[in-house]
Amino acid sequence: MTNRVILAYSGGLDTTVAIPYLKDMTDGEVVAVSIDVGQGGEDMESVRQRALDAGAVEAVVVDAKDEFAEEYCLPTIKANGLYMKQYPLVSALSRPLIVKHMTEAAKEFGGTHVAHGCTGKGNDQVRFEVGFANTAPDLKIIAPARDFAWTRDKAIAFAEEKGLPIEQSKSSPFSIDQNLFGRAIETGYLEDLWNAPTKDVYSYTEDPTLNFNSPDEVIISFEDGKPTAIDGKPVSVLEAIEEMNRRAGAQGIGRLDMVEDRLVGIKSREIYEAPGAIAIMIAHAALEDVTVERELARYKRQVEGKWAELVYDGLWFSPLKRALDTFIEESQKGVSGDIRMVMHAGNCNVNGRRSNTSLYDFNLATYDEGDTFDQTLARGFVELHGLSSKMAAKRDFNL
Amino acid sequence: MTNRVILAYSGGLDTTVAIPYLKDMTDGEVVAVSIDVGQGGEDMESVRQRALDAGAVEAVVVDAKDEFAEEYCLPTIKANGLYMKQYPLVSALSRPLIVKHMTEAAKEFGGTHVAHGCTGKGNDQVRFEVGFANTAPDLKIIAPARDFAWTRDKAIAFAEEKGLPIEQSKSSPFSIDQNLFGRAIETGYLEDLWNAPTKDVYSYTEDPTLNFNSPDEVIISFEDGKPTAIDGKPVSVLEAIEEMNRRAGAQGIGRLDMVEDRLVGIKSREIYEAPGAIAIMIAHAALEDVTVERELARYKRQVEGKWAELVYDGLWFSPLKRALDTFIEESQKGVSGDIRMVMHAGNCNVNGRRSNTSLYDFNLATYDEGDTFDQTLARGFVELHGLSSKMAAKRDFNL
Amino acid sequence: MTNRVILAYSGGLDTTVAIPYLKDMTDGEVVAVSIDVGQGGEDMESVRQRALDAGAVEAVVVDAKDEFAEEYCLPTIKANGLYMKQYPLVSALSRPLIVKHMTEAAKEFGGTHVAHGCTGKGNDQVRFEVGFANTAPDLKIIAPARDFAWTRDKAIAFAEEKGLPIEQSKSSPFSIDQNLFGRAIETGYLEDLWNAPTKDVYSYTEDPTLNFNSPDEVIISFEDGKPTAIDGKPVSVLEAIEEMNRRAGAQGIGRLDMVEDRLVGIKSREIYEAPGAIAIMIAHAALEDVTVERELARYKRQVEGKWAELVYDGLWFSPLKRALDTFIEESQKGVSGDIRMVMHAGNCNVNGRRSNTSLYDFNLATYDEGDTFDQTLARGFVELHGLSSKMAAKRDFNL
Amino acid sequence: MTNRVILAYSGGLDTTVAIPYLKDMTDGEVVAVSIDVGQGGEDMESVRQRALDAGAVEAVVVDAKDEFAEEYCLPTIKANGLYMKQYPLVSALSRPLIVKHMTEAAKEFGGTHVAHGCTGKGNDQVRFEVGFANTAPDLKIIAPARDFAWTRDKAIAFAEEKGLPIEQSKSSPFSIDQNLFGRAIETGYLEDLWNAPTKDVYSYTEDPTLNFNSPDEVIISFEDGKPTAIDGKPVSVLEAIEEMNRRAGAQGIGRLDMVEDRLVGIKSREIYEAPGAIAIMIAHAALEDVTVERELARYKRQVEGKWAELVYDGLWFSPLKRALDTFIEESQKGVSGDIRMVMHAGNCNVNGRRSNTSLYDFNLATYDEGDTFDQTLARGFVELHGLSSKMAAKRDFNL
Lengths: 399, 399, 399, 399
Description:
The structure is a homotetramer of 399-residue chains. Chain A is elongated, with a radius of gyration of 25 Å. Chain A has two domains: 4-172, Rossmann fold, CATH 3.40.50; 175-354, Alpha-Beta Complex (Argininosuccinate synthetase, chain A, domain 2). Chain A is of the alpha/beta class. In chain A, α10 packs antiparallel against α11 (319-331). The first copy, chain A, has helices at 13-26, 44-53, 65-78, 90-109, 124-135, 144-147, 152-162, 237-250, 275-291, 294-312, 319-331, 362-365, 377-385, 387-396, and strands at residues 4-8, 29-36, 58-63, 113-115, 140-142, 174-179, 182-187, 216-223, 226-230, 233-234, 255-261, 267-273, 337-344, 347-354. Chains A and B meet through α5, β11, β12, α9 and α10 of A and α5, β11, β12, α9 and α10 of B.
């Protein structure tokens, strides 16, 4: 059987040179797969052509933006999925989607291997490889950067040796991964944790320390946890994210500077921008506060933390992740209504909510006329609520 | 035995009139206890005199600001104690402190009853009464507002009937509770969840939608989770909170507008301001990200949620709260170092951290020269990390 | 509108006398509802006739054994639902079922009130009343034993006064609640925790300290968590429980003597017998060990504890319980196969399991021929698995 | 510097032959370290002499039985530490103790390497190596069985080649690890999960399917969670375990047949015997039911599961394990008193408990004379306990 390597192809120098390299290495053929998850940059047809020029036997290009929004970003919104309470899982979300499409390409084109460009100290190698273990366990995995110390310098040397017509762009000081849900930046000088990010790090967001002309008030509507309209205009999830990336980004919302716990056991400094994700998730959480019952809400907060850790840790397809998904889906029934927020200078503040499925009851809550809460019930409640603790206190404090 | 009522005394009209009322009601005496937890307002000596004038047999005034900061606010900082991930427990923290001092007063002055002014639909009745159940289970509790529908109008009528020399201030539309850790505001028109707060609601914070002249950069230093210096100047916890209230408040930081789940089962709309609490807790959490080991950090996030719920629910003295305290205290060993933040227009953004007890290892994290991470280890890790999920996928997806 | 009380009617003296009592009290009519959940005793038609004789305007009898087994016991089996790790929730399961049928009767017969016989210090009042709050929040609830101190003695006096033809059985020293999933016994002398239960307490189980002739080997088969066959013979869930009640009971399996934490805040001593429930749940859990992936299994153990607490606490219909149900249901996919157990003298020991959906892989597990586990992967795994802890140890232990 | 290998030395053939093998391999010296954790077998002095005869430059023998009982078994008792709710962590407990003593030997004798005999598919390699990473991160680790495929056959061939005077015992079909807390057995035919264990597998316990003459009633006393007396006779923890191993073992208590989730991702079949551990832990848990407050008890059950997983996973020295230890230690205050159990034919049934620190209150619990529970409190409690769920039901069920 001919070796056929399904390569996650970005169009950049490293993966372009990887095409002849993988052909040599496996004595086989390479199928380049490029997925549009909203990363921007050049058009996908150019990317496809470059792969073929570099020797790929097939080059597949997939516009997966809608799928990414509906199947990966939306569950994250419903889960309030923030790793370490902060990071909306941007890169961790795109990897399982890419895995899925590479697996499909492997079936279509008779792939025997899959190849990715990740190093051995990051999270993405795990997300790719555990992903393949869960979708195509028989495919062999090639990770040149990790297993063969394949670096940019080696790629250039290899290209020159082979006489490949590559264009050497100026080496960027930034290592960037971006998609429609956000943007991740690592760069050398930030490895000193005391250094602040410089302005050129950012691209999706304005500088929140500038003076802004006026706040931007927005109303986001949800149905069962899904964003369905912005300022009354119906939107798809993709449109909601794109629109909020634009508007929240313009107000400097969604920047993160954090030290995070990688799955491989080390801590690393990361800069993120995720204006749309953060703005939508703030609105979603505020709507949950109005529409989700207290005990469910309390438990869901624990589930959310675990869900985010699993996704971060590359376990998107795992049985536990799937079981938590059913819990979260059930919790979203009734998370419907409108959230009004004021966005300004890096802030995104909720100041109004309305919902037909609200659990807020004016007549129970009000201290004014119309009060229906029977206060005489409270005495018994308080007494029994505290009884077990009271018994313990009598013993422990000798009362 | 003479009835002696230990009254939580604020100095306001309601509790002043409550003094003769409670004397009548119990055919006994009243001891007024007033605790300074940084709520501001008139000086405590005037408060004390007013209680005596109104007929209290004793009037006790306690400056508990330092105790409140060290024994109640600091554990909250260490716990990242935010109810529903947002609210730093402002009122929930002062109640157990007040209970403790009222219990001490009861011992000193031979109290037989304790009295508080809470209604039957809020959380504070629970915090008071479960508190007393845990510190002085034999004292009888009187809650006139709840159990005898004692209202402001009744208080005024009673005062007039008794010829008490009260001064009727203009009735405020706001119901406010404040202390050095923050400020809580409820008011009638906000009971419509779609209404936005008006500017006059706020007192601790500037309006973040104004234009601010310049960002305020601050460095907060911690030792084992405790804030110990600001911009290099040593501070007590009380000083840290006061200083950050001032500086973060001036930048519009720490406003909250939320719908929260009360212990009595209803949802209610609350406005909070807690500039110092929020700013210090952001810094503290960022330092934990650098100094707390991953698995401990992941578990602590769940503990934090539970801790905040217990404190919110009035269980400050409960056995579970005390056991979680030991966990949290242990977790804070090594949470030492400096966090640099930029405060501006409602934002409080960490952009630098340094620590002698950091778990960040440049040589493991860097992609540049000096890298000591052995990438060949990753392959085995990834494979076994994903093995159990892979086995399940083979079965569940028929692979 | 005529008052109509829907009464949970057992057929015993107390609830029989309650019929005229409730008519008097409400100046209305009484509809008696009796549910067969496998509690045994007299036939339901006699029960029905007695209610009518005592003055009920309608008397409804429902054979709900199958429904109870499928809709209440089966979820408990899937959840390994043991309160305090021990008690299979026997009484807590029947209450929501009774509530459901009483609610239906209220709809059919125009009920305005519901009545139950529970006291104010047990759990069942909560299960009934929270149940009604969740199925028929507008019905008024009457709890004579709790709210009007309606006791057996008062019932007898009332019957004599009214000249009701009651038959005074000898007062039993035991308070018993039983159904097909088990039997709960409370009795005065066991309120001294040092007293051991006497033999006459038990009815579903043989004395396990006797000598038994021979062990009973049984094979229970499951499909997706549901028991479907015993020793190869297909069974309904009801049949599975009945058959295992008989066989496990004959071997003295399923007795519990525990001190339990009631919802109202007190600890109480309880004796339970649940031979079928315990035997089936042991088999079910053993099959999960073979068929549920590790991380899902670890998390499910926490969910199980919460699920059992919610059901014990009367929150069967609550949003959190319903969301946990979806998690548990998802977890049961693939919990299919056979478990072989030896039952003898109070023991129920699993000694064999086979499953087509097993996640056990002989070739990975074996140390003999056929081993396919690649041991070289372990080194990398071990190193990275321990890396974050190692970094912390270096700091904390000055290594 | 001379290479010096600190070898975990059992005295058996494999580790005896490993001594010259490791000398060859490292061109250095070997220090044999043998720890008595109650595994029985030959006396430690013979073991020591054999190591020296085989060429060890030093041979250290440590009687660590008391230390093992106090520092490793006791925390497990307090934690009710059962992996997968069943397995009392027998082998997982001895590994960190051995690591600790090997680390001390390395310091004393200038060790540069440590060596253990574990394979690459079990848990013990992880426990050893993560242990060393946490106590002596600079030592190099040699695992011949895993990294050099060092097998029994190779050991024998090597011994013959080197002319070592070894005694070839008959190869046992069982792979056994045992200590005073229990015994673990793996063997080829049990790798078929449908096969039942044969009688010769067991050594610590009698066959529970035999007929036993008479039940053995025992009273175990605890102070703050620690077993301190048996039938009134004061005991150390070591003595408690040894005594209960004898008595519970004689009644056939403590056998386990389970399929367990290994850390390396596979499921494996394991047989355990732990009569003393199981009997003491049953008593301990029953005493907790009487002495630990409800909410603390509920939370502790989750902590227990996590604690057991961490210990099983080799993370004894990890920061999270240490923080959970403080929680558990705090929870044990007041876990004092006597538990009476009847042991018979594999059963260990609690039937009496008494404690001066009990939270059981007869006067609150009793339905007889002396009842002090105020039942009128219940109505308010029930109503507010169920209120949030009621609001949700109204919405979700259209009530």
